[in-house]
């Protein structure tokens, strides 16, 4: 089917889903296992969530968290909550009780959607001993699976539809109860004095409440969501301190990801394997939202297992795969090629030129792109688009996203000459609306002229290509000489037999600090640290050479995939 052009640009994420349901309703939106959900079916199921949320009294501006792995439920729930006017708060599944409880308190979430049994973890139980969550009024357990959707042709349900949803199958009935309050004029149930639930509600019981709200009332609620409403609160990784809640709007999310999708050539008909967690901008914005904008098909992965993913790549004829470099090194180790793969994307760390070449030759990727972004930039600052030569793709992250600007500033705030390093700042629609409840931190990050001051160091070449060379806090000083951890890492990646590496500065009595390298070897052959250091002596100044090398099975990472360098420093 040919993707129909939209006559008017949708202003919000739920409006986008509604528009795609009308124009590309028969296109498969989600593949999860053997289940298929079309864009028409996605809108229908999300509308049921909107109705059920309204029945529970969820109002515009309320915050509701999703603490669950990648799934069709995650996408349907998020779109449905956004349609009710709520702000979605994604929480990573690697977080444990104290961390999740802290985020729920900080965001004052009224509701939580979560799971039991993912990787053997009972997520509601993790909160049981975390003290009161005074704002949390209901918890819903995502359970059951979606039936294959071959017949969804209508993007909405009739106003008199009173049946439980047919798209939710094989759920186990839980202990939740349903309210029977009268509806407000806008179709929203009246709020009883005490709405806190004593036990989690099963998904089927939650969704059955949709019958209490007319579809027309839910459609009106969706239409009333303003484009400048806060769509989500995503938390930074916290590698340098307490995680900050980043506020972004519907409008800027759609604007930025539409430009990103164009830059990387994402298109209707693509089948995108989504391996990045939806709690992160890479999975949520560059994954879900970008696919929604192009009516692409999302093939979901909850747990990355290289061989299982390799099988899925073949059986589902995947055309687009984006992820951190480790995804591609792991797939290369499986030793298969994927003739349908036209586009592979990576970023977020130093990329060896050899890996770019192997992604093309070994995996069969027709084109490779790299990108750079942060939570505060709606996930995107720059893109090195498909078709760029290998060296530039490996050593830069491309040019500023269309419609945005990048500058490099010195320590005193002056713009530096071409090729000189300095702090990366960005201005445009990809600058966050602010940090949650932290005006001082917001003012420190975004100056009066609208420039977002990142914590990254980089250079711009004469053609406007950005190279990210370091984090400001990743600079360490050896005997009075500044050392860029990223520079040393990039050099070490050129040594045969290294899959991943992280370099940190550690205390030294004589020199103040020295470098420590944490290496993940490629393959199973013995790794000789002395040989590595001897190799470094011909490639790095003496003060840049790590004084110690530790061999690890894997690098410690945050839920977003960033290396936990603070943990590495503490390990010394």
TrEMBL record:
EC numbers: 6.2.1.41
Amino acid composition bias (Basic and acidic residues), ranges on this chain: 182-197
Enzyme class: ligase
Stored InterPro entries: AMP-bd_C (IPR025110), AMP-bd_C_sf (IPR045851), AMP-binding_CS (IPR020845), AMP-dep_synth/lig_dom (IPR000873), ANL_N_sf (IPR042099)
GO biological process, one term: fatty acid metabolic process
Residues annotated as domain AMP-dependent synthetase/ligase: 19-436
Highest rank taxon of the organism: Bacteria
SUPFAM superfamilies named in the record: Acetyl-CoA synthetase-like
Keyword tRNA processing: no
GO molecular function, a single term: medium-chain fatty acid-CoA ligase activity
Region Disordered: start-end pairs: 149-197
Residue stretches making up the AMP-binding enzyme C-terminal domain: 487-562
Keywords, sorted A to Z: Ligase
Pfam families recorded: AMP-binding, AMP-binding_C
Family: Belongs to the ATP-dependent AMP-binding enzyme family.
Protein's name in the database: 3-[(3aS,4S,7aS)-7a-methyl-1, 5-dioxo-octahydro-1H-inden-4-yl]propanoyl:CoA ligase
Gene transcribed to yield this protein: fadD3_1
């Amino acid at each position: 089917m040919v993707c129909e052009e939209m006559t008017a640009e949708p202003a919000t994420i739920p409006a986008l889903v509604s528009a795609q349901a009308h124009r590309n309703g028969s296109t498969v939106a989600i593949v999860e296992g053997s289940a298929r959900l079309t864009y028409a079916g996605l809108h229908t199921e999300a509308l049921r969530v909107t109705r059920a949320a309204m029945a529970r009294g969820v109002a515009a501006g309320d915050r509701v968290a999703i603490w669950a792995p990648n799934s069709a439920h995650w996408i349907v729930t998020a779109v449905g909550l956004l349609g009710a006017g709520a702000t979605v708060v994604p929480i990573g599944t690697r977080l444990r009780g104290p961390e999740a409880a802290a985020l729920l308190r900080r965001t004052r979430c009224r509701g939580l959607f979560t799971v039991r049994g993912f990787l053997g973890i009972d997520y509601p139980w993790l909160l049981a001993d975390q003290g009161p969550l005074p704002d949390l009024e209901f918890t819903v357990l995502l359970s059951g699976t979606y039936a294959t959707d071959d017949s969804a042709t209508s993007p909405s349900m009739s106003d008199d539809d009173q049946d439980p949803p047919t798209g939710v199958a094989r759920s186990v009935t839980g202990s939740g109860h349903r309210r029977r309050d009268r509806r407000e004029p806008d179709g929203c149930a009246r709020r009883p004095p005490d709405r806190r639930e004593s036990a989690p509600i099963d998904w089927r019981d939650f969704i059955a409440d949709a019958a209490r709200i007319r579809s027309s009332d839910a459609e009106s609620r969706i239409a009333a969501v303003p484009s400048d409403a806060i769509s989500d609160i995503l938390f930074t990784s916290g590698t340098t301190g307490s995680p900050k809640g980043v506020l972004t709007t519907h409008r800027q999310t759609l604007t930025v990801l539409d430009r990103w999708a164009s830059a990387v050539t994402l298109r209707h008909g693509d089948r995108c394997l989504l391996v990045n967690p939806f709690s992160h901008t890479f999975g949520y914005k560059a994954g879900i939202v970008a696919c929604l904008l192009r009516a692409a098909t999302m093939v979901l992965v909850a747990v990355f297992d290289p061989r299982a993913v390799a099988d899925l790549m073949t059986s589902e004829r995947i055309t687009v795969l984006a992820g951190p470099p480790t995804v591609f090194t792991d797939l290369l180790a499986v030793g298969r090629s994927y003739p349908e793969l036209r586009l592979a994307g990576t970023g977020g760390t130093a990329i060896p030129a050899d890996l770019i070449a192997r992604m093309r030759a070994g995996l069969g990727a027709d084109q490779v792109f790299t990108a750079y972004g942060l939570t505060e930039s709606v996930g995107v600052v720059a893109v090195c688009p498909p078709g760029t030569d290998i060296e530039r793709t490996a050593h830069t992250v491309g040019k500023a996203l269309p419609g945005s600007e990048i500058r490099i500033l010195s320590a005193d705030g002056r713009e530096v000459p071409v090729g000189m390093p300095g702090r990366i700042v960005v201005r445009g629609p990809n600058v966050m609306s602010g940090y949650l409840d932290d005006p001082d931190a917001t003012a420190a990050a975004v100056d009066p002229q609208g420039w977002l001051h990142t914590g990254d160091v980089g250079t711009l070449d004469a053609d406007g290509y950005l190279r990210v060379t370091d984090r400001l806090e990743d600079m360490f000083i050896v005997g009075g000489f500044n050392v860029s951890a990223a520079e040393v890492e990039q050099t070490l990646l050129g040594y045969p037999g290294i899959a991943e590496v992280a370099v940190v500065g550690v205390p030294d009595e004589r020199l103040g600090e020295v470098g420590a390298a944490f290496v993940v070897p490629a393959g199973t052959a013995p790794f000789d640290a002395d040989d590595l250091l001897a190799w470094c002596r011909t490639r790095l100044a003496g003060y840049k050479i790590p004084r110690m090398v530790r061999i690890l099975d894997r690098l410690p990472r945050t839920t977003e995939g960033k290396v936990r360098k603070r943990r590495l420093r503490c390990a010394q």
